[in-house]
Write a structure and sequence with these properties.
- With about 725 residues, this protein is α+β, with helices and mostly antiparallel strands.
- It has 18 helices and 21 strands.
- It has helices at about 10-15, 20-25, 35-45, 295-300, 315-325, 360-365, 370-380, 450-455, 460-475, 495-510, 515-535, 565-580, 585-600, 630-635, 640, 650-655, 670-685, 690-700, and strands at about 60-65, 75-85, 95-100, 105, 110-115, 120-130, 140-145, 165-170, 175-180, 190-195, 200-210, 215-225, 230-240, 250-260, 265-275, 275-285, 290-295, 415, 420-425, 560, 615.
- The strands form five sheets. Strands 8, 9, 10, 11, 12, 13, 14, 15 and 16 form a nine-stranded antiparallel beta sheet that branches.
- Helix 6 (about 360-365) packs antiparallel against helix 7.
- The relative contact order is 0.09.
- The model is unreliable at about 1-50 and about 150-160 (pLDDT under 50).
Length: about 725
């Protein structure tokens, strides 16, 4: 990958000769503000010319095909990738074909999710493409309609790839194995891809001893993807220790081995497989194609499946190089956590907090192969946290709709379902130390690890990771507090409510239409939005500030203050949910928008301290909330500070900041103004003239972070 890559959105603007007035549509910056995309690139890269992939004229979208392995160009190799379409772009029943500079190619489209109007939302696209030359990516345009003169021979759906795959685990000298034979008694029933170009079958096989004894916890899950026209098979193997209700849950230490066609392809002695976790390895039979496909990041963001990241942010080469340098050793192997912090509850600003983590935002804005590797790799390692609970009955991630009393919190009696008289509690680890793990997960500090990987690859593993985490967010609280199968997030910290809603909404949005969990996630999201609207948006007695005060919200200064930055996380999550098409989120966003907007434009307060760490919202723990933001602002500042002219030199001197610099670590990509930016970006779109003024003032501040080193909060209005 060339070091001289620019964001895909910006690259498209340059290639199309877009004027800065048109760029305003993407950035939210005022037209005529002096922004010239080409000058931005020249200032960054000097006289060097970045590799730009132009949109193919007339295409629905244009993806980028890149040679990542350095193999010789020209060979026809298989690719599959995830593709999101905005509502109405691809009508139901419409086929696709592809075009490159070399000509037209057939495409296989496996539709996974659709929009309410029936148009395609998300699909897995498969093709055979000529491998490009190294460092010379090729544009692949997607067009409606079948490829003219396309001839592809379909392999029968009952045909299984001719691969022997064996997963083995030697535990205390006893060998257990799971085997997928070359000639099964009957073909696997679960098909993920099915068409003339690619087939993918799924099968779950318990590990068994030589005598046929089934291991009580360990299961191998195989996803075999074959491309008949390319004589290649992808073997995707996941080993799970994740049953939800089976007795004997604990860690297992074993010598792991994976063999394909009799040859060992992976060994790991002494692997400590933590309880309710899983690990994944992917191999190719017939040779790794050595090709990646990057969907158009511009179109991905324009579809609203992803927040609107600022296209003028140029990801720093040093940041990409540092990330690549860290990607080695135990952190990248099973039970490692990649770029995610192992102890999620660790406080302070960090790269994995946000609507997307920093490395994923880097990938969106750069399409860099290193950022992609880390984004997908950390998505693989999301399985290393003990948040994975699979229902043995359904074979799917466990659901609060099926078990409304299940929980990891509360007394044993709280898990008793009165309708059945049975406990829905998980079987705990009975032996001290048998479930110890350095990977400590929670909801209030939870990164979004699998959503973007699933969007861009269409891999079933990432879909289930998203579902596991989303459902964990719904059932981790006490069933009575969350109102059972409603999965209400209100008992958690405000930031926990934010990140819980973020992941649940995305699971509801992107889970395939034929997956039973789709309705479950929609029910949980709708229940949460209905609760928030009833208690805030539509409640005449709700506070006038536009802040969330439930859960662990007003806990600062003896129960009189809250954290605006946590509330900003929640506002951003609501804005994201509204953009995904959840109608009940829009009125909630309009109600929430008053808080970030007032902090920038209220005439009786000063925006310089709009990102204050904690804000007093009432006189005492039992007092009513203040009637307006100005009242809260005055109560949160000393009289001598209030006497200073807003944003003037005296205020700057008192704060030891530059004139026009906001408090809260303005230079930091994870500072409190950065935390505020996504909330303000979403609010500006629904708050009318005040919203526009608030955004303009925020962007006019004198000191800003260099988001090129971490763009997870670099979200701008659409």
């Amino acid at each position: 990958m060339s070091a001289f890559r620019v964001p895909i959105m910006l690259a498209f603007l340059l290639a199309a000769g877009t004027a800065h007035a048109e760029i305003q549509v993407f950035t939210g910056l005022p037209a005529g503000g002096g922004l010239d995309a080409r000058k931005v690139v020249e200032a960054r890269y000097g006289s060097a010319t970045p590799n730009l992939v132009k949109r193919i004229e007339g295409s629905l979208t244009t993806a980028t095909v890149e040679n990542t392995g350095g193999a010789a160009a020209g060979e026809a190799v298989p690719v599959s990738f995830g593709q999101v379409f905005a509502p109405g772009v691809l009508q139901p029943g419409t086929s696709l074909h592809g075009r490159t500079a070399a000509g037209t190619i057939p495409l296989q489209m496996d539709v996974k999710a659709t929009h309410p109007d029936g148009s395609v939302r998300h699909a897995v696209i498969s093709a055979l493409v000529a491998r490009p030359e190294a460092r010379k990516p090729v544009a692949l345009g997607l067009f409606a309609g079948a490829a003219p003169n396309a001839h592809t021979s379909a392999a029968p759906e009952t045909e299984r790839p001719a691969v022997d795959a064996v997963v083995s685990a030697t535990i205390d000298g006893k060998r257990y194995s799971a085997t997928l034979d070359r000639r099964p008694a009957q073909p696997p029933r679960d098909s993920w891809l099915a068409g003339p170009i690619a087939h993918e079958w799924h099968a779950a096989v318990p590990l068994r001893s030589a005598g046929g004894e089934e291991h009580p916890q360990l299961v191998a899950r195989f996803a075999l993807r074959t491309y008949p026209g390319a004589r290649r098979t992808r073997v995707d193997i996941t080993v799970e220790n994740a049953w939800a209700f089976e007795p004997g849950a604990r860690n297992f230490t074993y010598d792991a081995q994976i063999a394909l066609d009799g040859a060992a392809v992976y060994t790991r002695p002494g692997l400590n497989h933590y309880h309710h976790t899983r690990w994944r390895k992917v191999f190719w039979v017939g040779g790794d194609p050595g090709v990646d496909v990057h969907p158009s990041m511009q179109d991905l963001m324009a579809s609203r499946a992803i927040p609107n990241y600022d296209p003028t942010v140029l990801v720093a080469e040093s940041a990409l190089a540092d990330m690549q340098a860290r990607w080695h050793g135990p952190r990248t192997e099973p039970m490692g956590t990649g770029e995610a912090l192992p102890a999620m509850g660790t406080t302070g600003g960090r790269a994995d907090i946000g609507l997307l983590p920093g490395w994923a935002a880097m990938y969106l804005l750069s399409a860099d192969a290193r950022a992609r590797k880390v984004t997908l790799g950390t998505g693989d390692l999301a399985g290393s946290f003990s948040a994975h609970f699979r229902d043995k009955r359904s074979g799917r991630p466990v659901s609060v709709r099926d078990f409304p009393y299940m929980t990891i919190l509360g007394r044993p009696g709280d898990a008793i379902n009165p309708a059945t008289g049975k406990s829905e509690g998980f079987r705990g680890c009975e032996t001290p130390g048998s479930c110890d793990s350095p990977n400590l997960h929670d909801v209030p500090h939870q990164p979004e690890l699998a959503y973007l990987p699933y969007l861009v690859t269409g891999d079933h593993y990432y879909l289930e990771e998203l579902q596991f985490w989303a459902m964990y967010n719904a059932f981790s609280s006490n069933p009575y507090y969350r109102e059972f199968d409603k999965g209400l997030l209100k008992p958690d910290q405000v930031r926990g409510q934010a990140w819980g809603l973020r992941t649940l909404a995305r699971a509801a949005y992107i889970t395939p239409d034929d997956d039973p969990l789709k309705k479950h996630f929609r029910h949980i999201v709708d229940s949460n939005l209905a609760w928030y609207n009833a208690h805030y948006t539509d409640n005449p007695q709700a506070n006038a500030l536009g802040v969330v005060v439930d859960g662990y919200a007003v806990v600062y200064k003896n129960g009189t203050a809250l954290a605006p930055w946590q509330d900003d996380f929640f506002t951003a999550a609501v804005g994201m949910t509204a953009e995904l098409g959840f109608d009940k989120a829009l009125p909630l966003l309009k109600w929430k928008a008053r808080f970030p907007v007032a902090r920038m434009v209220d005439p009786d307060a000063c925006w310089i301290d709009g990102a204050i760490y904690d804000l007093k919202v009432r006189d005492s723990a039992g007092s009513p909330f203040y009637r307006n933001y100005a009242q809260a602002y005055r109560a949160s500042h000393a009289p001598e500070f209030l006497a200073l002219p807003c944003a003037g030199a005296d205020m700057a001197a008192a704060l030891k900041l530059a004139v026009g610099e906001m408090t809260g670590y303005s230079t930091s990509v994870v500072g409190y103004p950065s935390n505020m930016q996504p909330a303000l970006a979403y609010s500006a779109a629904v708050a009318g003239d005040d919203g526009r003024k608030a955004w303009e003032r925020f962007m006019a501040r004198s000191v800003k972070p260099d988001y090129g080193n971490g763009p997870q909060f670099a979200i701008v209005p659409r």
